[in-house]
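Sample A.
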Amino acid sequence: KHGNAVKRNQLKRWLREAFRQQYASWPAGIDVVIVPLDAGRGSLSAYSRSLAKLIPKASRKLADRDSSPE
């Protein structure tokens, strides 16, 4: 649990906004599940930076998945 209802709702708003800011950069075909681990240090800029770092990793994984023979 991440604090009281007010804190949890703020956390959800930050995560949604951070994802909205990075959405255009995400490759198609990827579903994202976000689980905040430490709400005490969270902020909109921190979540946005974290998602921005994940974009290249997600792109590589998607490319590897698409290029691997099945």
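Sample B, a different protein:
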Amino acid sequence: FKWENISVFSNEFVTLQFDIAIAKLRQCQASNNRTSCMDCGDFFECKIRSNYVDATYEKMNEGRGGQFDF
């Protein structure tokens, strides 16, 4: 077991979570004939969108809890 592998597995998990979240969001948009969530009545309460936003945040900071690399 090597500790440096934890980072690799963590990044892969974060990427997988993001891929799943964006796929669910796109599926929802397609099933509702939308190209954006902005005109949806459930915009602020939508669990799918909320999960996507959280997954995007995690992917941007690579699972480090708020540290961003731009």
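Observation for Sample B: The two ends are 31 Å apart (CA to CA).
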